[in-house]
């Protein structure tokens, strides 16, 4: 562990003399750079997806969790009496607040997409709607249903839970998919950097042999390779992150009306999250190269 | 003062065949040894055992009074800073200049400051490579490569130098020059072991230093006859 920390510190500090002992290897350098850039680009989108799904879940949860609707159906002559009874029940139910019967205009606006703007509500047996919110402590929906059943038989309570549950499950699923994609992206980056490091170590067997001959420790040799691949991964990831951020920023913003895909993007401080991508890519490359070099150097005589 | 290298009943086998057996000897500080014998007799194997590139299959090799088997990787790396090695094929890092290659032991030891740079210039002058300091190793002649390898081996002032056929690829004049460098290094109180099949070189050297000649034959290391 101490060696690990020391090597990480050496990478941050840098050692130009040590860096020069490993020859620049063109193809693995370019591959590492390209892979890190591509993975960082994808990571930015996966991150945007995760955060957007999280926002959506929070919004749905917030909007649907506290609200509920009571639908009152009754013959035309009894509607006002039933409505008043329902209001009385709600106002006397602990945990219920902001009880608000929808006005005719509000109901008309609600039905307008289906029936047009001139719906004669007075002559149609349209149920009346009452919206209300629950307080922090919440209310007992089963108890409320029983009371309504006894006092307002034509009332149906819709507490939105049956809508909210699948929506939240879908949003959570999307969020998990986003984080899983991120984990896979960094796993793939680690695997690719590991392959590139192995190829580089194999190509530099002669260099390793000379370094050992002149007294270089395995840590010294490993650090030279680890530093090179880590810095390449960070540079590539920084490039990919910048391009990814630009792409996300250029996506059309549909604001609050957007769904998870059209609302893909970052809001506020979430724009800082992608800045972690190059650091994470560097950490992954550091670990992958360190494991590869330790393994290869351990196998060499 | 500790012995530099001690072989205690050492054997080494490879691929089912025994290359060395029952080898016991001491290499003292300031001594000069030649190791002779036909090709394939085990000279290189003997040298590799001397700097822990190989471990004996029986017996014990001690380097500066520490068993080589117990050194570990870092311990072996430390030993390589005390025992300089000159290979017959003079392996270099071809992407670095001659000066950087010669300074490589200092670089890996983290001792490549301005003072070391001055020592490097002196050393390159000592081996006659000052004008070739910026050249790349592939541009060097055989003799220049051998001198560069020797300079690299001595730059950290090791306690011993092991040279494997250092004159194998050079003409007689260059052989004399390389030998002279090794003799000068030995006169600084450092141990030198030179593996060679060039008996003429051995005879010339014996006129300059009290060298001990070892012969490897039939898996044994013995003192050579009086003719050497």
TrEMBL record, chain A:
One of its GO terms (biological process) is cell division. The keyword Hydrolase does not apply. GO terms for cellular component: cell division site; membrane. Keywords: Cell cycle, Cell division, Membrane, Transmembrane, Transmembrane helix. The chain crosses the membrane at residues 31-53, 167-189, 229-251, 271-292. This is Cell division protein FtsX.
């Amino acid at each position: 562990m101490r060696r690990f920390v020391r090597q990480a510190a050496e990478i941050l500090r840098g050692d130009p003399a040590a860096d020069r002992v490993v020859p620049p290897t063109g193809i693995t350098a370019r591959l590492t750079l390209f892979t890190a850039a591509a993975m960082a680009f994808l990571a930015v989108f996966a991150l945007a997806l995760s955060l957007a799904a999280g926002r959506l879940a929070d919004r749905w949860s917030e909007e649907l969790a506290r609200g509920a609707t009571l639908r009152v159906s009754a013959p035309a002559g009894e509607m006002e009496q039933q409505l008043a009874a329902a209001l009385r029940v709600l106002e006397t139910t602990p945990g219920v607040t902001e009880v608000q019967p929808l006005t005719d205009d509000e109901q008309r606006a609600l039905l307008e997409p289906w029936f047009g703007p001139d719906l004669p509500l007075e002559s149609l047996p349209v149920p009346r709607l009452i919206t209300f919110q629950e307080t922090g402590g919440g209310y007992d929906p089963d108890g409320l249903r029983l009371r309504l059943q006894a006092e307002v038989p034509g009332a149906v309570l819709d507490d939105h839970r049956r809508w909210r549950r699948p929506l939240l499950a879908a949003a959570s699923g999307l969020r998990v998919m986003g984080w899983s994609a991120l984990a896979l992206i960094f796993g793939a980056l680690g695997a690719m950097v590991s392959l590139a490091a192995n190829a580089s170590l194999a190509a530099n067997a002669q260099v390793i042999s000379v370094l050992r001959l002149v007294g270089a420790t395995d840590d010294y040799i490993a650090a030279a390779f680890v530093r090179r691949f880590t810095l390449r991964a960070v540079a590539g990831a920084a490039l990919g992150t910048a391009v990814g951020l630009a792409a996300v920023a250029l996506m059309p913003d549909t604001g609050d009306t957007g769904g998870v895909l059209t609302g893909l993007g970052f809001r506020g401080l979430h724009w800082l999250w992608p800045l972690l991508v190059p650091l994470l890519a560097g950490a992954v490359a550091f670990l992958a190269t360190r494991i590869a070099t330790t393994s290869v150097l351990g196998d060499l005589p | 003062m500790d012995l530099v290298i001690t072989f205690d009943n050492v054997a080494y086998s490879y691929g089912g065949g025994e290359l060395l057996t029952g080898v016991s000897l001491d290499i003292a500080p300031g001594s000069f040894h030649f190791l002779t014998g036909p090709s394939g007799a085990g000279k290189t194997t003997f040298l590799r055992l001397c700097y822990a590139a190989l471990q004996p299959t029986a017996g014990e090799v001690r380097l500066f009074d520490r068993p080589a088997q117990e050194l570990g990787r870092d311990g072996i790396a430390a030993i390589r800073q005390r025992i300089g090695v000159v290979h017959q094929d003079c392996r270099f890092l071809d992407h670095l200049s001659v000066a950087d290659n010669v300074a490589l032991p200092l670089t890996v030891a983290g001792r490549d400051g301005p003072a070391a740079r001055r020592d490097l210039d002196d050393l390159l002058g000592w081996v006659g490579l000052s004008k070739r300091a910026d050249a790349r190793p592939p541009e060097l002649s055989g003799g220049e490569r051998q001198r560069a390898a020797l300079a690299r081996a001595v730059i950290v002032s090791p306690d011993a130098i092991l040279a494997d056929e250092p004159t194998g690829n050079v003409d007689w004049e260059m052989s004399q020059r390389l030998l002279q460098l090794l003799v000068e290094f030995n006169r600084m109180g450092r141990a030198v072991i030179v593996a060679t099949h060039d008996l003429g070189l051995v005879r010339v050297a014996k006129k300059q230093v009290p060298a001990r000649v070892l012969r490897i034959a039939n898996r044994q290391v013995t003192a050579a006859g009086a003719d050497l």
